[in-house]
Amino acid sequence: MGDSGPMVATVVPVLNEASYIEACLKSLIQQSLSPEQHMVLVFDGGSTDSTRNIVERMILLSEKAGGPRIELHENPGKFVSQARNLALELLPASVQFTVEMIGHSTVDPDHLEIRLSEWNLIQSEHSKPLGAVGVKVLPRQGEHGRVESWIEGCLKSPFGSGNGQFDGFNERGLTQVPAFAMHSRKAVESVHGWDVDFITSQDSDLSMRLLNSGFLLARTPATHVRMVKRSSLGKWWKMGHRYGFWRMKILKKYPKRASLREFLPWFGALSTVTLLALQSSYAGVLPACYLAVLSLEGLRGALMSKRFSLVYGIPVCLFMLHSSFSVGLLDGFVRKGRAPKDR
Q1: Whole-angstrom Cα distance, residue 220 to residue 107?
Q2: Orientation angle between helical segments 51-65 and 21-29, nearest 10 degrees
């Protein structure tokens, strides 16, 4: 394509995304940004469902509709970091920015135009070069099932969102954790791309290397990505464990990224066990306070959404998140990583 080709490339790693990939690609085809300025690269990690057939159909649809060029590639490494590194090798020289997407996410029609506008605005406010700009992550549109509504309610809670991709921020500014980031291709290549040792949290690792190399990271609430979350408690537990496991890998490599709140469940559990061992009359204080907080969050979520089942659903999901993440932290401290089984 040469230097006159697209400026932005959206990279979509997929694995068995037949239920969602059509909506994802449709939202990219319908972008208001000129098709000549945008391309889409889909990397399949070995899907055994109809994902590839759907992508091939969407490629033809985009061609007929005059949409952006969509390419389907094999991802022999299977995981996200390998797909994003492959994209760097295959992109035409004209591409300056890469946009992170996943198969079970969608964006509004003006998403890419707003991203570019926000990038230019943020860069004009700072002298150091931008490495990435992230956006808000919102729930998928449509009616949510019972467990899915519990999980969404949990993530809206300050006790469930954290400072990562589910943080409900409302102001443009610098950050260390941009979600669904648009990256400067030049910046990413200068730090040698994504570390394939990270099966999950590869973006956190990349962000730290970009920061250490003098690039700025930012985020904006001006646009968003809608993402499908887990719809069963089993998958929710596995996700929490996986996040905790790979979070520990990040902390072992970058200790300064540690946050006290990440270890509060372990502090509470160990303190309670110690008090029980000492036969202290205060042994039940911390569990009672924790239960009260979870119950209040459930009540608050139910009142806000007018959905009664959140009274008990949010506490259950918060407890599962805190416990699975904490177990994952410990697991990540003692064990090497392996492929997650919840996707």
Answers
A1: 15
A2: 20
